[in-house]
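Tokens in:
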């Protein structure tokens, strides 16, 4: 993935859901034509097209059809390239433009600035934050911190007031007039959360490959734990076991002669 917007991808196979937003259509076409000659390319083709669809409109057309060819090949808005299999025709792509709030998605919201977002708000027919559907609010708030306030203009712009504090804290602001009052919408890009996961060094071998643990070992460890629990139960007999332990088990009954002797003693 490019470290910045000016770095160029070396292969179309380096394209992913993050850097596709910074790559130009002409770059994609150039890399596609370069890499499609590789024998292994067809197996990645559909996956690449799905990635491209995140940021671009993608259409397939038949280059032998004059009407279709004229629609895409004579239009500078579209960039064209051929599929690896000629029978699948050609592909035309163009950047998806975000001109309305309805154009926002959980993917592209990550790649616009707060000022661009507020510009989309300003095109919302003068409606404020409350006029936006809940589903759209969820998309926006997945990448932006949004706060609003409605105050008289004099109070909003008072020295040391809400507006001044929010701007100092890095928020962009949009003011929407509502009679003699103003609704201020503040927006600031959220810092992407980094998920940390501890991985024991023993999970990797000397070559840095992940060690696959044998599931049989896990089963054995589970058995051992069960045995340990059973042993603990034996060490602490129940009240019933203590009661019946005062009786001699049938397996230890004496022979007939011994029983006779016992009876004679009792008779004496």
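Residues out:
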């Amino acid at each position: 993935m490019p470290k910045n917007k000016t770095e160029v991808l070396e292969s179309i196979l380096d394209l992913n859901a993050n850097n596709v937003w910074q790559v130009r259509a002409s770059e994609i076409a150039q890399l596609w034509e370069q890499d499609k000659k590789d024998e292994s390319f067809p197996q990645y083709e559909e996956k690449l097209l799905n990635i491209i669809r995140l940021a671009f409109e993608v259409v397939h057309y038949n280059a032998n059809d004059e009407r279709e060819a004229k629609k895409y090949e004579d239009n500078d808005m579209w960039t064209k390239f051929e599929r690896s299999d000629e029978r699948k025709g050609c592909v035309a792509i163009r950047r998806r433009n975000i001109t309305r709030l309805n154009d926002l998605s959980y993917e592209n919201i990550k790649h616009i600035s707060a000022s661009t977002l507020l510009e989309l708000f300003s095109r919302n027919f003068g409606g404020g934050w409350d006029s936006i559907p809940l589903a759209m609010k969820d998309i926006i708030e997945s990448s932006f911190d949004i706060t609003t306030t409605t105050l008289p203009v004099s109070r909003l712009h008072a020295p040391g007031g809400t507006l001044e504090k929010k701007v100092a804290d890095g928020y962009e602001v949009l003011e929407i007039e509502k009679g003699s009052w103003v609704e201020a919408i503040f927006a600031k890009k959220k810092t992407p959360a980094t998920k940390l996961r501890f991985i024991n060094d023993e999970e990797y071998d000397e070559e840095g490959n992940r060690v696959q643990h044998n599931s049989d070992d896990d089963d054995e460890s589970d058995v051992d734990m069960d045995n340990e629990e059973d042993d603990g139960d034996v060490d602490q007999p129940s009240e019933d076991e203590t009661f019946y332990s005062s009786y001699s088990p049938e397996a230890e009954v004496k022979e007939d002669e011994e029983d006779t002797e016992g009876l004679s003693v009792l008779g004496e």
